[in-house]
């Protein structure tokens, strides 16, 4: 295994360099770029008491040992060893071994992994005007080959800032997104009616994943195009069915390209050719959004099906609000229900769709008692934070009450903000967050008011594609309420 990887690195080493800058040579040896050498510096107090008298050098940060050039990449290709689709578990295991901070080099990228929200909060508060994050390299390469302008997801610097400033005026302003609440509510109503029709004899939906993709695309369509696409009709237009299939296959190809050696830059592999074919059909920004929303709804439905108490609390809130409104509950009123919003937030904690968020540091920082130089790639181990008893009481339990006034309510400002990191942070936060939240509040409310959800199969766990998706089909039983 080692010999074969060394051959690959010798031949293809240059193509392993990412499109984003990696830790500079003067940082790799632990030298402080601002001070010129490792020495004691003052630091801010952190959660565990008094600040340390000195800050340890970057070179003393613990982490797994790797090989020259490839780092620990070979660990992920050993038979029966760790795999990239379980990377979120690997980060948890590493954190248990090394602590709140560790370093791991994967090919050309050296990653600093942070498992403490208080420490990663320092990264958030030192955000640059043009933040740099880990990019979707295969998508950037594809757009360059096709002569397509890099959009808001794949661009950087001034080009990204101009696009972001323009788009955020519509997509991140609550009042603008709220204008489409009624239309999105109608889409949610149609989806509930479709669930009635397509349930099998056991009350389950045979291909729930595809149905949720169709709902997410239809709901997004009323915002982007101000018209219905027909994804939820009894016989969807052939074009819509084709896009959904291309989208699923594109995501699968992109996963393999992201977590493998980028040989496609030297010659176009079979996987890359398939990726190009599917990407030519699917609009990248839309597909990324649709994937996140449909996956998030899948986890929400699974969490509710496994927690009937929560489900009934949610239904009670909806029906009481409907009673106060005289029987007619508007979409605008639904999206303001506190327990509905708490259910979505708790799902983001218990079943996150993203296992990490990251930045390339614009300045030198002290993190967990270590000096981390500008240019370092720092990741937040979100999956580990969400299940850590230090930050969440009874993290193994599904408790939406954490996010509303109750005996379980979280009051710590930093901890309360952790689930929002699923959408990213700062200027590069997911531009579709407001739309996604509104869609989820509406469709979940309407489903729970119409059906009792239950799950009678093997437990579902996450697996990593581009997002954390269920590792098996989620076969939820939808039983109509009286």
UniProtKB/TrEMBL annotation:
One of its GO terms (molecular function) is iron ion binding. Its cofactor is heme. SUPFAM superfamilies: Cytochrome P450. Pfam families: p450. The keyword Metal-binding applies. Keywords: Heme, Iron, Metal-binding, Monooxygenase, Oxidoreductase. Belongs to the cytochrome P450 family. This is Cholesterol side-chain cleavage enzyme, mitochondrial. It comes from Elysia marginata.
